[in-house]
Design goal:
Elements: E1 4-7, E2 10-13, E3 18-24, E4 33-39, E5 46-51, E6 58-60, E7 68-73, E8 78-83, E9 92-99, E10 115-116, E11 120-125
Parallel strand pairs: 2-11
Antiparallel strand pairs: 1-3, 3-8, 4-5, 4-9, 5-6, 7-8, 9-10, 9-11
Length: about 130
């Protein structure tokens, strides 16, 4: 069973940085793409970024492009989301998710991801 655990969330001032990590249990036994999504209170879930299985295709939403960076460590089954120049509007619960059906595509569609972590809270104060 695929299990995802996010970590690294917290409270940071505007302009600061955080690095989120998503550790996959290592039980997929298949290549997969991983995405990051976020949901702020009262708002719909929003795509943040995604990386394909080889790490060669990375997509970002326009709202985070140039500020956030996704990377992966295959040896640790972990994907990272480095968030710089954080803004109060980045405040949300951040979720990682795995897409095993389209591992070579870093899809932006949440419904394409079958497995989700429980999320980690990121709060950016002004």
């Amino acid at each position: 069973q695929v299990q995802l655990v996010e970590s690294g969330g917290g409270l940071v001032q505007a302009g600061g940085s955080l690095r989120l990590a998503c550790a996959e249990s290592g039980r997929t036994y298949r290549p997969y793409a991983m995405g990051w999504f976020r949901q702020a209170p009262g708002k719909e879930r929003e795509f943040v970024g995604a990386i394909n299985a080889r790490g060669r295709i990375i997509n970002y939403s326009d709202s985070v492009k140039g500020r956030f960076t996704i990377s992966k460590d295959n040896a640790k089954n972990t994907v990272y989301l480095q968030m710089n120049s954080l803004k109060p509007k980045d405040t949300a619960v951040y979720y990682c998710a795995v897409d095993i059906d389209r591992p070579w595509v870093a899809t932006v569609t949440g419904n394409d991801y079958a497995y989700w972590g429980l999320g980690t809270q990121v709060t950016v104060s002004s």
